[in-house]
Amino acid sequence: MGWNVRCWNCVFVLAIVLALCSAMVFGDYESFMICNDTDKQEYPAVSGDRVVWVDYRNGGQDIYGWDISDANEIEVCLAGGDQLQVDIDDDVAVWRDRRDSVTSIYAGFISDPCDPCDPIIVTEQILDGGTTEQYPAIDSGIVVWRDKRNGNYDIYGYDLAEAEPLVFCDDPCNQYHPDIDGDHVVWQDYRNGNHDVYGYNLTTEQEMTICIDSGNQYYPKVSGNIVVWQDDRNGNNDIYGYDLATWPGGSVFSICTDSADQMSPEVSDGIVVWHDKRNEATSGYDIYGYNVTTGEELEICMQSGDQRYPDIAGSLVVWQDSAGAGDIYGAYIPEPSILILDSPGSGEMLLGGSQYTISWYGSGPTIDYVMVEYSLNNGQDWDVIDPCTANIDSYFWNPVPSPASDSHDCLIRLSDVSGDGGGISQEPFTIFNCADSLTADIDGDCKVGLLDFAALAQQWFNCGNPYDPQWCD
After folding, report:
1. Out of 244, 252, 355, 397, which could bridge 225 as a Cys pair, Cβ 3.0 to 4.6 Å?
2. How far apart are the first and last CA of the chain?
């Protein structure tokens, strides 16, 4: 029989739906300017709604900031000499300070409107004396930095509340670039003849060997239990990570191993950001990200010109942008869209050739169209049920496939066709076939149960005594 008008209408509608699905591509997030004052702004750091950076507008290096919630610029420290290498936690900024021919680590409470540059001197050493304090970081009132008082670089710290000096690592070899979050301090360590990642647990007072791969690991950062770093084990710079909750076991995991360079990672609440060279020919360095929980890579800023040295706090990412002389920009990572499968559930039995309603629910921004797939071998291979269907939290599966043999390792996978989210069965279910020899299955559910006996009794009463012919068929 030839195609009729109704069939052609179906094809036309399907073509429109597929076109809508294929048009749903996602790119970088909407960014906003934080500071584009004259001269250069660089190396931003962020905590909550406050951003701080190193600023050259006054001829030297000063520390400026911006409160996003109040749309208010903050002069954090404009003292003589240079202020650089700034970090921030809540309303406390720390930086390396070179005023009056000395080098020191300073901490200032930037929310004080009376005198935002009346700092606590964390430590002070004479620059000409051969000692150097660099790269401070702060969390929960604990400041850490790289310190050369012993003739090599060590990791020192200071408790602002207790006015107590701390020593985290004074190994005879050099340690660099410390970071701190909660109970964990991490740093780059050269004790094994190449750069590795070590750490320290403030609660257990125990040093941790995090990554001693044969390549070099640089610039570690920590948030919660997730440590990330720049890694050259593959011959270029990649991003790797480790979950401290699995220490001392567990394994290092890759975050981005693109053939181009990925550098200067930062992490907050399971989101990793870095600047990336893969699009250098078209847009220069870009800002990418990665969700450790979902495994999703994020294209945060792909604008022309170079975007470098990102930092992240929660969903807010900030970076140094060279669209001008060197400005500070930011963007919010949208709340992720998540699809959570409701049924079929763990251990559920589906009869091949039958009909079944797959159901799910979502969180985050609404997903318009989903792709529905199934696997018979626990996710090793996937077959498409529907490549693009409207997301109404359910799908009528008709028919359920009839595998060559029963499978107890079946899964359902849902994917947002725009690439923003998805979901998968948490536990496998079973698809089975009905055996031809199961003649006692009266109600057709492919099993012999009480309903079959009830049907047998009903037929007996209605047709079996005294009337027979074929038991009323």
Report:
1. 244
2. 35
Determine contact, residues 20/369, Cβ cutoff 8 Å: yes
d(CA 248, CA 243): 10
Q: How far apart are CA 362 and CA 414, in angstroms?
A: 11
State whether CATH 2.120.10.30 applies to domain 31-332. yes
| The residue type at 273 | V
Instruction: Give whole-number Cα distances, 453 to 116, 207, 459, 473, in Å.
Output: 85, 69, 10, 17
Please tell me the distance from the alpha carbon of residue 56 to that of residue 53, in angstroms, as a whole number: 10
Following CA atoms 310, 316, 322, 325 in sequence, which dihedral angle do they give, to the nearest 10 degrees?
-110
Domain with CATH 2.60.40.10 in the chain: 338-432
d(CA 151, CA 387): 64
Containing 8, the helix (H) or strand (E) segment is helix 5-22
- Digit-coded pLDDT (tens) for 63-100: 999 999 989 899 999 988 999 999 999 999 999 998 87
Of 204, 172, 202, 199, give the one whose Cα is nearest residue 188.
199
Q: How far is CA 143 from CA 93, 164, 167, 471, in A?
A: 10, 10, 11, 88
List the structure tokens of 258. 């693109």
Q: Say how far apart CA 181 and CA 192 lie, in whole Å.
A: 25
Of 290, 267, 294, 289, which is closest to residue 416 (Cα–Cα)?
Answer: 294
- Is the per-residue pLDDT at 125 higher than 70? no
CA–CA gap between residue 132 and residue 365 (Å, rounded) = 49
Token pair listed for 19: 């076109």
Of the listed ranges 5-19, 148-162, 317-331, 430-444, the least confidently predicted one is 5-19
The CATH architecture one would assign to domain 338-432 is Sandwich (2.60)
**Burial grade of 19 (CB within 10 A; 0-12, 13-18, 19 or more):** exposed
- List pLDDT tens digits, range 312-368: 999 999 999 986 678 999 999 988 788 889 999 988 999 999 999 999 998 888 889
Residue with the bigger pLDDT between 167 and 13: it is 167
What is the phi/psi pair of residue 28, to 5°? -75, 165
The neighbouring-strand residues paired with 327 are 321
Report the amino acid identity of residue 446.
C
Q: In this predicted model, which residue has the larger pLDDT, 439 or 334? A: 334
CA distance 165 to 198: 20
Task: Calculate the average pLDDT of the chain.
Answer: 86
- For residue 35, the surrounding DSSP H or E stretch is strand 31-35
As annotated, the residues of the chain forming the CATH 2.120.10.30 domain(s) are 31-332
